[in-house]
C-alpha cells in the first residue's frame, strides 16, 4: 500500500468518486483495525548502512563467486540489537525505541544524539564456529529527514495530496516497521511475504512428499478514507520440511522411510517411531544407491537456493544450495592454500581458529607451512579431513554457493525454504486446502486471537510511540448487487435458469451456440489397459455423447461404433502416443477422406503429473497443434455423479471447439456495447523456486498472456502469448499482442471498437506506475498502427487477488450455508484508498473456507464509468465464465489470461529447464516461440486453454 501511495503523484489516475448506490446491506466486518496516536509524534528517518569488515589478511573471494552476499534479516537484527546494547554516545531511549526494518531504514522518536547527523559505529558479533573469528560490522547512521506523523491524518482526509504523497509513504513505512518490531525478533517464526507474513515453525502440518504447512499471521499498515488501519489476518505458507538433507530428498522424490527413529528437529517421527515436531528421522533412513536423473531434476527445482547447515563440524553459518554435482566418489575438488600473494614464500595464513586463539592469549599470529595444491574426490577429502568413512559414494555431491561440494549426509536443511504454489503436488495442494481453508467463524476466531496476542500494548514499541491499535474489527457499509440474468438457447426448457447464491443448474438448458459437431476424435489412454478396458471406455463415452445430445451438441461415433483408442505402453514418449492417436483419425478413416487432423483427442490419465507434458506436446510438438481434453482415470469410472462430470466436461469441450455455452443479458452489462467495446485481459507469470536465481545469472523467462473477447457477444476469446525477460512485470510486447487481437475482433465484428476495457491481473503495487504508463502507451500505439487517426477510449482496471481483506456478516441471516456472505457484496467506502477509484467485490460463493473478495483498482477511465456502472459490469461478467455454472471470483477475461499464462508456463518449464543453467536453445529462443507454434493452425483462434 505504501508503494501505491508513493506512485500516486506520478500517475494521472482516475480519482476516487462517489460510492455506488445500487443494492442494500449487508454491513460486514473486516480484519482491519484503526490506528490512532494520542498525539502524533515527530520522528526522524535514518538511512542505515551495514557493512561487514573483512580482516586485512583475509583471502580473496574465489573466482566466479561475485560480490559478497547481502546481510540477511537475522544477522541485521543481531547487529542492530548489539548496537542498542552498546548504547554508543549515550544515544539512550531514542535508540532503544527505534523501529528498524532489518535492511536500511530506521525511525526514531526525535533526533539521535549525533551532532553531524551521520556517524559510523563498529559492532562485533560472536564467532559462528570455533574455526572462525568473531564477525565485525560497521553500522552507518545518516539522518535522512524529519517526519511529522500528523501528515497521515491530512493524507487520509484528501488534503494536500500532491504535497504529501512522498512524505506519507515514508510515514506509512515507519508505522509498518514499528508494528512489526516485536515479530521480527521471535525465534520460532519464519518471516515471509516481503516482511508481512510471520509463520510459526511450531505450528506445522505435514503435507507429504517433503512438504509442511506453517501457520502464522499477516500484518500490514495501509491508508484508507477513514484513517490509518492495520490489516491482520491468519496466514499459511507451504515449506520444505527442515531436517537432515538426505531424508528430506528421499521424501521429496517419494522414497519410503525404512523404519522409525528418534524424532529430529523440524519434522515428524518416521513410520513406527514416536511423533516429533516435524522433519524426518535420522535413524533408519533409506539409503538409495543413487537418485535418477529425473529425481535430481526435481530436487534441483525444489531445493535450489535452500539454506543448509553443515553437521560435520561446529559451524552455525547457513550455506546456500546451488545444485548437485557428480557422485561424491567421482566429484573432484581442489584443495590448497588461498592466502594472498606477496605474504611470504612458503608461509600460509593461519586458520581463523588459530588466529582467535592467538588473539585471546595476546600472542603473535602463528606461521605455518603452505600446503601444496592437490585434487581428490569429495569422499576422499571428507575421509581424510573429518574421518567420514561411511559416506554413500553413489549419492551426488551437493554444490553450495561459493563452489564447495559436500556429501548430502553432512547437511541439515534449515527452516524457511518456501514451496511456490506451482510446485505443489496434487497431494500437497489438497492437504494444504484442507488445513488452510477454514470456515468463516473459525478464521475470524483465529484473527481475534492474533489481535489479542499482538505486541501492541504496554511495554511495546508502538505503545512507547503513543500509538493505539483498536481491539475491534472495522464494521463496513456493504451493498449486495443483484445477480444478472444468465441466458441459454431459446429452445431450452430453462433458457434463463434461476440464479441463487451465485450458481444455477444446467440440467434443462441447452448451449446458446453449439460448437461444430465433433466428428474427428480419438482417445489416448495413459494408463495400463487393464485399468481402462474398451468396454468401460465405451460406457463412459456413451454417457458423454448422451449428455452432449441433451445440450444440442453432437459428438458423432464411428460407423462401426468402435472407439478409436490408443494405449501408452509406459515406455514410449507420450508424443508418440499422441501421434498414434492422431493417425487413427487421419488414416484409413472413411469419415475423414481429407485426412484432417483430429478436432480433439481425449486423454485419459492415471497420473495427474502427466497433464503438463501432454498439453505441451499436443500444442507445440505435434505436426499441427491439436486440442486435447484430459480426464483423470479415477473420475471417468466413478459409479456415481457421472452425468454431472460429463456435463462439466462438455462446458470445456464446447468452448474449446468454438461454441458459446451461455451469455449474460446485455441489460446487465452497462458500458459494454456489442460490436463497439473490446474486452482485454492480461497477466504475467514469473519463474519460481530455483529458477529465479540460477548460477551464471541466467533467469528463466516470464510469460505474458493477453486475452480478448473477439466477437460481438463477448463470449468467444482468443489469446496471445509471449516469453519475455525473467521477473519483468511490464508486458514488453503488448503493442503487437494487442494489435493482433484487435484485428481479430475487427474481422469478426466487421468494425472497430469505440472503447477498450483492460483488466490487468498480477501487477504488484510497487510496479503500478511504470507498468501502467508503458502498457497504456502500447495499447494506444497498437490502435495508431491500425489507423493513425483512431483513438478509442480506454479504461484500465487492475485486478488484485493477493490481499488479506475478508468480509464477515454481522447477522446469521446475512450468511449463506457455508457461513460466508452471499455473492455480490461490494464495499467501496471506509477501507478504500483516499484518492484512487477502487472497490472490493466478492462476486462468488465461498465453497470451502472463507471467501476472498477481489480488489479492483481503476487507474484510467476515459469511458466515464460511475461506481455503480463499473461494479455492475464486473459483477455481471463474473457470471459468464465458460467452464462453470456459477459466478467466479475474478472477471473472466482476466481469469482466462491467468489460465493462459499458467498453461504457457508449463509449455516451457520442463524438467530439463529446472537445472542451474538454461539450455542454449532456451536462451536464444524468440519471444514468439510459443505463439508461432500455436499459430500453425486455427488452434490459436480457439479457446484451447479451457
TrEMBL record:
Signal peptide: none annotated. SMART domains: DUF1785 (SM01163), Piwi (SM00950). InterPro entries: ArgoL1, ArgoL2, Argonaute_N, PAZ_dom_sf, Piwi, Piwi_ago-like, RNaseH-like_sf, RNaseH_sf. This is Argonaute. Residues 256-291 are annotated as: Disordered. The lineage of its organism: Eukaryota, Fungi, Dikarya, Basidiomycota, Pucciniomycotina. It comes from the Eukaryota. Pfam families: ArgoL1, ArgoL2, ArgoN, Piwi. GO terms for molecular function: nucleic acid binding. Residues 263-281 have a biased composition (Gly residues). It comes from Rhodotorula toruloides. Residues 600-909 form the Piwi domain. PROSITE patterns: PIWI.
Amino acid at each position: 500500500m505504501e508503494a501505491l501511495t508513493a506512485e500516486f503523484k506520478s500517475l494521472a489516475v482516475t480519482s476516487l468518486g462517489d460510492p455506488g448506490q445500487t443494492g442494500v446491506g449487508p454491513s460486514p466486518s473486516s480484519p482491519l483495525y484503526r490506528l490512532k496516536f494520542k498525539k502524533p509524534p515527530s520522528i526522524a528517518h535514518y538511512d542505515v548502512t551495514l557493512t561487514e569488515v573483512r580482516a586485512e589478511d583475509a583471502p580473496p573471494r574465489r573466482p566466479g563467486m561475485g560480490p559478497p552476499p547481502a546481510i540477511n534479516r537475522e544477522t541485521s537484527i543481531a547487529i542492530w540489537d548489539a548496537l542498542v546494547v552498546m548504547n554508543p554516545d549515550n544515544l539512550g531511549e531514542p535508540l532503544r525505541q527505534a523501529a528498524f526494518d532489518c535492511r536500511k531504514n530506521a525511525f526514531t522518536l526525535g533526533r539521535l544524539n549525533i551532532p553531524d547527523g551521520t556517524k559510523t559505529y563498529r559492532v562485533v558479533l560472536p564467532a559462528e564456529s570455533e574455526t572462525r573469528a568473531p564477525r565485525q560490522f560497521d553500522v552507518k547512521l545518516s539522518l535522512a529527514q524529519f517526519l511529522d506523523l500528523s501528515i497521515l491524518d491530512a493524507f487520509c482526509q484528501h488534503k494536500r495530496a500532491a504535497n504529501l504523497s512522498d512524505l506519507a509513504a515514508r510515514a506509512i513505512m515507519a508505522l509498518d516497521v514499528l508494528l512489526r518490531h516485536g515479530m521480527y525478533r521471535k525465534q520460532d517464526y519464519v518471516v515471509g511475504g516481503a516482511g508481512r507474513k510471520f509463520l510459526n515453525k511450531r505450528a506445522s502440518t505435514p503435507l507429504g512428499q517433503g512438504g509442511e504447512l506453517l501457520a502464522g499471521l499477516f500484518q500490514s499498515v495501509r491508508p484508507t478514507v477513514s484513517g490509518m488501519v492495520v490489516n491482520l489476518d491468519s496466514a499459511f505458507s507451504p515449506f520444505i520440511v527442515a531436517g537432515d538433507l538426505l531424508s528430506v530428498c528421499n521424501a521429496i522424490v517419494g522414497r519410503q522411510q525404512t523404519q522409525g527413529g528418534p524424532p529430529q528437529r523440524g519434522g515428524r517421527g518416521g513410520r513406527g517411531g514416536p511423533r516429533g515436531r516435524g522433519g524426518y528421522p535420522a535413524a533408519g533412513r533409506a539409503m538409495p544407491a543413487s537418485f535418477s536423473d529425473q529425481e535430481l531434476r526435481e530436487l534441483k527445482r525444489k531445493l535450489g537456493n535452500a539454506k543448509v547447515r553443515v553437521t560435520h563440524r561446529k559451524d552455525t553459518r547457513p550455506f546456500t544450495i546451488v545444485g548437485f554435482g557428480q557422485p561424491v566418489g567421482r566429484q573432484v575438488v581442489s584443495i590448497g592454500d588461498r592466502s594472498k600473494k606477496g605474504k611470504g614464500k612458503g608461509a600460509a595464513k593461519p586458520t581463523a581458529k588459530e588466529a582467535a586463539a592467538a588473539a585471546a592469549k595476546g600472542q603473535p599470529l602463528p606461521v605455518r607451512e603452505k600446503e601444496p595444491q592437490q585434487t581428490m574426490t569429495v569422499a576422499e577429502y571428507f575421509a581424510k579431513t573429518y574421518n567420514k568413512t561411511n559416506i554413500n559414494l553413489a549419492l551426488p555431491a551437493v554444490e553450495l554457493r561459493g563452489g564447495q561440494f559436500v556429501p548430502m549426509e553432512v547437511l541439515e536443511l534449515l527452516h524457511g525454504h518456501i514451496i511456490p504454489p506451482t510446485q505443489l503436488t496434487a497431494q500437497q495442494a489438497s492437504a494444504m486446502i484442507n488445513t488452510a481453508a477454514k470456515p468463516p467463524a473459525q478464521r475470524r476466531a483465529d484473527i481475534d486471537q492474533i489481535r489479542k496476542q499482538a505486541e501492541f500494548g504496554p511495554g511495546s514499541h508502538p505503545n512507547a510511540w503513543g500509538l493505539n491499535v483498536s481491539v475491534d474489527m472495522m464494521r463496513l457499509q456493504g451493498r449486495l448487487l443483484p445477480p444478472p440474468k444468465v441466458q441459454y438457447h431459446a429452445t431450452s426448457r430453462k433458457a434463463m435458469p434461476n440464479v441463487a447464491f451465485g450458481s444455477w443448474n444446467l440440467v434443462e438448458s441447452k448451449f446458446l451456440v453449439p460448437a461444430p459437431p465433433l466428428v474427428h476424435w480419438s482417445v489416448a489412454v495413459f494408463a495400463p489397459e487393464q485399468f481402462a478396458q474398451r468396454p468401460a471406455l465405451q460406457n463412459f463415452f456413451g454417457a458423454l455423447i448422451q449428455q452432449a445430445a441433451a445440450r444440442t451438441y453432437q459428438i458423432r461415433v464411428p460407423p462401426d461404433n468402435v472407439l478409436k483408442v490408443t494405449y501408452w505402453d509406459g515406455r514410449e514418449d507420450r508424443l508418440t502416443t499422441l501421434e498414434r492417436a492422431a493417425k487413427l483419425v487421419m488414416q484409413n478413416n472413411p469419415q475423414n477422406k481429407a485426412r484432417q487432423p483430429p478436432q480433439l483427442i481425449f486423454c485419459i490419465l492415471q497420473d495427474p503429473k502427466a497433464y503438463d507434458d501432454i498439453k505441451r506436446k499436443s500444442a507445440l510438438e505435434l505436426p499441427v497443434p491439436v486440442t486435447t481434453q484430459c480426464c483423470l482415470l479415477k473420475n471417468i469410472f466413478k459409479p456415481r455423479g457421472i452425468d454431472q462430470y460429463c456435463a462439466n466436461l462438455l462446458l470445456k469441450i464446447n468452448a474449446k471447439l468454438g461454441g458459446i455455452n451461455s451469455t449474460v443479458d446485455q441489460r446487465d452489462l452497462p458500458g459494454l456495447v456489442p460490436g463497439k467495446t473490446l474486452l482485454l485481459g492480461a497477466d504475467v507469470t514469473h519463474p519460481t523456486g530455483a529458477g529465479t536465481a540460477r548460477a551464471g545469472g541466467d533467469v528463466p523467462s516470464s510469460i505474458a498472456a493477453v486475452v480478448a473477447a473477439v466477437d460481438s457477444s463477448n463470449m468467444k476469446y482468443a489469446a496471445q502469448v509471449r516469453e519475455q525477460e525473467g521477473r519483468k512485470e511490464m508486458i514488453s510486447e503488448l503493442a503487437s499482442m494487442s494489435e493482433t487481437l484487435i484485428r481479430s475482433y475487427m474481422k469478426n465484428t466487421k468494425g472497430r471498437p469505440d472503447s477498450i476495457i483492460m483488466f490487468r491481473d498480477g501487477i504488484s503495487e510497487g510496479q503500478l506506475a511504470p507498468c501502467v504508463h508503458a502498457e497504456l502507451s502500447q495499447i494506444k500505439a497498437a490502435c495508431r498502427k491500425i489507423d493513425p487517426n483512431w483513438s478509442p477510449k480506454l479504461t484500465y482496471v487492475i485486478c488484485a487477488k493477493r490481499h488479506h481483506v475478508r468480509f464477515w456478516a454481522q447477522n446469521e441471516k446475512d450468511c449463506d450455508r457455508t457461513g460466508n456472505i452471499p455473492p455480490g457484496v461490494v464495499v467501496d467506502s471506509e477501507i478504500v484508498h483516499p484518492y484512487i477509484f477502487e472497490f472490493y467485490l466478492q462476486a462468488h460463493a465461498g465453497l470451502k473456507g472463507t471467501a476472498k473478495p477481489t480488489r479492483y483498482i481503476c487507474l484510467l477511465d476515459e469511458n466515464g464509468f460511475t461506481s455503480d456502472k463499473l461494479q455492475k459490469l464486473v459483477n455481471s461478467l463474473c457470471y459468464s465464465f465458460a467452464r462453470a455454472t456459477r459466478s467466479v471470483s475474478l472477471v473472466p477475461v482476466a481469469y482466462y489470461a491467468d489460465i493462459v499464462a499458467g498453461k504457457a508456463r508449463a509449455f516451457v518449464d520442463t524438467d530439463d529447464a529446472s537445472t542451474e543453467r538454461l539450455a542454449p536453445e532456451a536462451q536464444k529462443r524468440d519471444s514468439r516461440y510459443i505463439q508461432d507454434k500455436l499459430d500453425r493452425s486455427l488452434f490459436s483462434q480457439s479457446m484451447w486453454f479451457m
